[in-house]
Amino acid sequence: MESKSLCMWNLGSIILEQSSEILPKYYALFHYVTSDECTIDANKKQLCQQIVSLELFLNYFYSIYIVSLRGALLAMNEKEQKANLKYVNAYIIEGYKALWGFTKHNHSLWGQFIKLYSKEKNTDTFDEMLDEITCALKEYGDNAITDKDERCLAMHYQIDKNGNPQELLKLDEITIEKEQERYYQFSPIYHKMIDCLVELLNYYLFKPYRTEILKIQPLLPELNIVDQLVWHDKINEINFAITKNIEAQASSFENCKDMLHKYPLMFKEISRKYNVDLSDCKELLRSSEAMLAISYFSIDLCSILKVYFNSTIPLERNIALSRMNIICHSIIDRVYGYRDRKGSYWEQYITKPYFNMELPDTVVNIRNVMESLIASNTYTQEKRSSFVHLKKDNYIRAIKYLYSNSPLVEIQNSEAIIKILPEIQKAIVGVVKQVDSNIKCSCARKNSWIDEDLKKIAPYRNQPRVKSVYESLLLLKKGEIMEAIKILKDI
């Protein structure tokens, strides 16, 4: 790890250790200032609530942001690094959206606070600092928050409801250089906000209500440290297995990516050159899209597992567990669906070619695993929304969930998903064979026109380039389109 990255890594450790101390204290303080037992002057109570809320938000948001960045710096594989970088990208965008907003700034956390503070303040001491922060937030948004599609892909694996798996290729545009630069631009804003909020809290809350504040008891349990002891002796073995899986899936991802780039052009050229209808081949490409997505899911989940297993900071491990929950929830939703199968890969890719035929055992096993994961009740929409969308009520709930994670359950479920994803890939290969068989049946009937071309070039079939064309036409006549393309693409 180069010196600049190492410095960022070490700084991240310090910030996470500090947040580990701060989050429980401010969580308890937030519940106090929003309770009926709070004795703060009614005129200042709402202002204190907003200040505490902002302090809590900043520490939580910046922690999950830092964990993602540290994961990217730790990565040993480009795809592993990209998997973590997309969350660096997503969390800075989501955090900025909650903090300042893209358009409706008055509805943002900072905007609402500034509006209330202007009415309730009893000193001008902090005005200049607050103005500087507001200007810095505006400038940062104009210069750095320009790629919102990547955030949707990171959290949903698609830009919109009808998204195509090929959209995932857009995430390759995220680079460590870009995210490091964005981090260095935001870091001073974050620290200035923290310093300002601490001064505001001292002035409006800690000094005048010190006696009451000292009576506040923690509400969150201690973060679990026993879970790391369970895996301690197996870390090297686990790291090796996860890294090998990432490398295998990265190779599969690149193969699918290459196929999706090249084959449509080949289909178009062959259709034009030989006047043949290759529309049936779209189903084969759709299966390649599914393979691409499954490889990505596996890389994504394995990457956060590495963050979890290699961290010695309880807060970081629990943040990793929360992201595991997000990823597993999204995989189940995209592959199988929770309430029904409509729009899922199960409907679109895995079972569609079988029509009314009996499903193969591998496909039945996939269904059983997915049903078992859903039945575990580990993945709920409320929990996912709390972790993903950093709105006020959400991040308060997210912190509570963070401190009540079940490490062994999350790890066991993640392991089950990682094991079933290759089975899904095998099932998709079976789907490709079934689709190819369906295509051959129809193409063998409608490609009889090729006989005329075969007769024309038969006398020259032993010449080098003509031989390849002749052999490809024979395959096309039989409906063996993919085999024909493999020959033609080398001409």
Automatic annotation (TrEMBL):
Taxonomy, superkingdom: Bacteria
Protein name as annotated: KIF-binding protein
Species whose genome carries this gene: Segatella sinensis
